[in-house]
Amino acid sequence: MSDPLDALEKSISTLRRAIRDASAAGDTERAGELRMQLRRAERAWDALVDAGEPATAPPHPVPAAAPAARGSQLPAREHVHRALMLLGTPAAPKLIVGVHEAFFPGELSASKLSSLRRDEERSYRSSPGARPYYLCPALAHDLLTPVRALITISTWTLDQRVIGPLSPRVDFLTGAIRIAEAVRTSAESTAGGPGPEALRLLWRFAVNIPDALPRSVSGHEGAMDPQQVIDAAGAELDVHVDADRAVRAEAARRARKSLKDDQQLFGAPAQGVTHLRTARA
């Protein structure tokens, strides 16, 4: 069973390889952004080591649930962080709360997320980089303005935090795969198997994906096969992912060129829209 430190160490190793590849290709903008991501990941690793125990969940698979008492002591931002790490995609507050309820102990309400997002930006602007990560909005691919309905994590790459025309569907399918993997892991590693909240969450994904549900079953979450959901979501994802990735990569390139460090996290100001249109042209 992996833990947050393992996940961060893997991410750090991946980022270092990506920096080396970008530098070898002469892509200084990409290498610079990856170095920023590497510094954030290393700070997050230091924070977890200093804390003496895992504070967040790895991207996937989800481990067996921690005791409720320990989960209830975590601040709301930690609850949001571990739900997003499981999904691996920008997500709306309602989905974040649903993922948290399905896989993690403790309480989290959608009402807390509005003030939390404002607090995160204020904290960054008062002391940039003081925290190992920040919760920040996704960025619109065209104007690079904040998509406040969607929350991301500052340690993710710009490409991952950008939302293009196909991104909502791509992220939905990616999320479905991650949830199905978490349900499957829970079934294999937990005596009681996945809880009803996890099965209902997977069902809500599966009903919107062609061929993700058994043909002979209707309305019964427990009869789902997580692998069938993974295969069906993956088949559709293959259709859209390359086009979506290209849009996100181009938007990330413009963001690295046009935006300051804080704007790359929290979006371009409204007065910067004209400038960004010119840069895109």
Could you describe the 3D structure shown?
- A three-stranded mixed sheet has the order 2-1-3.
- About 5% of the residues have low confidence.
- Helices cover about 60% and strands about 5% of the residues.
- With about 280 residues, the protein is mostly helical.
- Strand 1 and strand 2 form a beta hairpin.
- The termini are far apart.
- The protein is globular, with a radius of gyration of 19 Å.
- Helix 1 runs antiparallel to helix 2, helix 4 packs across helix 5 and helix 8 runs antiparallel to helix 9.
- The protein contains twelve helices and three strands; from the N terminus they run H-H-H-H-H-H-E-E-H-E-H-H-H-H-H.
